[in-house]
Amino acid sequence: xxxxxxxxxxxxxxxxxxxxxxxxxxxxxxxxxxxxxxxxxxxxxxxxxxxxxxxxxxxxxxxxxxxxxxxxxxxxxxxxxxxxxxxxxxxxxxxxxxxxxxxxxxxxxxxxxxxxxxxxxxxxxxxxxxxxxxxxxxxxxxxxxxxxxxxxxxxxxxxxxxxxxxxxxxxxxxxxxxxxxxxxxxxxxxxxxxxxxxxxxxxxxxxxxxxxx
Length: 213
Description:
This protein has helices at 13-23, 36-46, 62-72, 87-96, 107-119, 153-163, 168-175, 179-193, 198-207; strands at 5-9, 28-33, 50-53, 77-82, 100-103. The chain is an alpha/beta fold. The chain has two domains: 5-130, Response regulator (Rossmann fold, 3-Layer(aba) Sandwich); 151-207, Winged helix-like DNA-binding domain superfamily/Winged helix DNA-binding domain (Arc Repressor Mutant, subunit A, Orthogonal Bundle). Strands 2-1-3-4-5 form a five-stranded parallel sheet, with helices on both faces. The termini are far apart.
């Protein structure tokens, strides 16, 4: 019986190499990439059975990558492997179309289990019991953090690229739009989130896993 085909996506190369060694005994590792946009390019070509992907990825975060991937290859299985244990991230992953969510610190024990389960058509969310049930997660001061789902796909893309320190012209080139369009989305983002500067946009992006701290 042929081994299941796995595509790995994480921007930490040493961690990625370790996960590849962990999985290669049981699965066929067809590729490893280091950005969300690379996943969208390679998955239709490599045709993996499962994509194992981090939440915080450069150019396009894991959540939005999976949203777009599902539109292209809806039959693919997705396992998130992330350092973020916040219920907000788990719920966003589910909303994007994830089949499983595993924390990196638990990867050796739970990742292989998660992959086998999703290949059988099951889901695996061992941390879902911490979800508060209303789609929002409390922050440290007792308030509510706005969910990324309140933003459009394009707004999330612009937010991430601004938080990565990219200039408007570079963002326009990456997204294939005009600089004016990027300026418009950035303006709408700042109004919607109630922030006044790039540093505040960056802080929001870090809190929501769009950029590593």
